[in-house]
Specification:
- Strands 1-2-3 form a three-stranded antiparallel beta sheet, with helices on one face.
- 57% of the residues lie in helices and 11% in strands.
- The chain is mostly helical.
- It is built from eleven helices and three strands; from the N terminus they run ααααααααααβββα.
- The protein has two domains: 148 residues, Ribonuclease iii, N-terminal Endonuclease Domain, Chain A, CATH 1.10.1520.10; 69 residues, Double Stranded RNA Binding Domain (2-Layer Sandwich).
């Protein structure tokens, strides 16, 4: 596991002064629950902090990059960046899923690739980096791994998988395309929705997210991959 964290720091470009903070950022609650008697903390508090730090740093970036944009437009842009589908892509690019510490049950049910878990890990990493090295380090990290992947015109969201899937379905002459929420899980304060993307009556993609829209975006992303492979 030490080797995994070493490689992670190489990928991100940051060596943590406090290794315990880095480990905590990738410690899922399911892992802590199985470590009876061990003094281990999960990443939920770091996720809370990281979300706030992301909101601030992305807001400042947009404020400086688009000096003529009104507040409402900047808010929409920020929402398209600091959302689960976007954070999942950044986490996947950095292979965060490989180093998350999971309980056996969560591991067996595919937790390592679960969108909500990856997005949480990204936020927790940002929170840990902020505590370890300050806001400047977070800004440098985002300048390397997040901001370069934003659309240059600043008008479209990072990627709208639902629109892309609709265009693909029309191009292939398939359809109709619809989405269904097939499951709601977790407590009320931490709800997760599961959606399925159906083309005709065939389920081509499943996705999970903190909102129905995010779950549908993830389902559309999986359906796109299925159509591309097909």
């Amino acid at each position: 596991m030490k080797e995994s964290f070493r490689k992670l720091q190489e990928r991100t470009g940051f060596t943590f002064r406090n290794a315990a903070l880095l480990r905590q950022a990738f410690t899922h609650t399911s892992y802590v629950n199985e470590q009876r008697g061990a003094r281990t903390s999960d990443n939920e508090r770091l996720e809370f902090l990281g979300d706030a730090v992301l909101q601030l740093t992305v807001s400042e970036y947009l404020y400086r990059k688009y000096p003529d944009r009104p507040e409402g437009e900047l808010t929409r842009l920020r929402a398209s960046i600091v959302c689960e589908p976007s954070l999942v892509r950044f986490a996947e690019a950095l292979e965060f899923g490989q180093v998350v510490l999971l309980g056996k049950g969560e591991e067996l049910t595919g937790g390592r690739t679960r969108p909500s878990l990856l997005a949480d890990a990204f936020e927790a990493f940002v929170g840990a980096l902020y505590l370890d090295q300050g806001l400047g380090a977070v800004q440098t990290f985002l300048n390397r791994h997040l901001f370069p992947h934003l659309p240059e015109d600043g008008r479209a969201p990072l990627k709208d998988y639902k629109t892309e899937l609709q265009e693909k379905v029309q191009q292939l002459g398939q359809g109709p395309l619809e989405y269904r929420i097939v499951e709601e899980r977790g407590p009320a304060h931490d709800r997760e929705f599961v959606a399925v993307a159906l083309i005709g009556q065939q389920a081509l993609g499943h996705g999970a997210g903190r909102s129905k829209k995010e779950a549908e975006q993830q389902a559309a992303s999986e359906a796109l991959r299925a159509l591309t492979k097909g």
